[in-house]
């Protein structure tokens, strides 16, 4: 049996292990990178295929809105920019129902 579906949700993205490139540190004198955590919409289109009584195969595509403010110190003062990272994510998974 095939079960297609679409969904809409909220995405929360915390940023870990923040660092500047060596080029930014050298050429701009940059340091102290800070990225704000992000909230945004997430859209999903997916389909589940029943393989057997307890197993299924899932294929899905996600569109995630990730918008953040980035700031760092430079030789010319504090720099603040907005960054928009809105990826498409593709996934194939195998599931087991109890």
Helix content: under 10%
What is the alpha-carbon Rg in Å? Answer: 20 Å
CATH-defined architecture: Beta Barrel
- CATH topology category name: Porin
Total tally of structural domains: 1
User: What string gives the helices and strands in order?
Assistant: EHEEEEEE
- State the strand order across the main sheet: 1-3-4-7
Inertia-based shape:
elongated
Mean pLDDT: 94
Distance between the termini: 17 Å
Q: CATH class, please?
A: Mainly Beta
- Biggest β-sheet, characterized? 4 strands, antiparallel
β-strand number? 7
Please state the structural category.
mainly beta
Q: What is the number of helices?
A: 1
Question: Which consecutive residue ranges, at least 5 long each, have pLDDT under 50?
Answer: none
Strand share of the residues? Answer: over 45%
């Amino acid at each position: 049996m095939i079960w297609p579906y679409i969904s809409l949700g909220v995405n929360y993205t915390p940023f870990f292990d923040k660092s500047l490139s060596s080029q930014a540190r050298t050429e701009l004198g940059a340091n102290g990178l800070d990225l704000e955590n992000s909230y945004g919409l997430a859209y999903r289109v997916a389909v589940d295929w029943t393989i057997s009584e307890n197993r299924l195969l899932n294929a899905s595509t996600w569109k995630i809105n990730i918008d953040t403010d980035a700031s760092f110190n430079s030789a010319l003062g504090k720099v603040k920019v907005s960054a928009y990272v809105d990826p498409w994510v593709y996934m194939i998974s195998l599931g087991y129902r109890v």
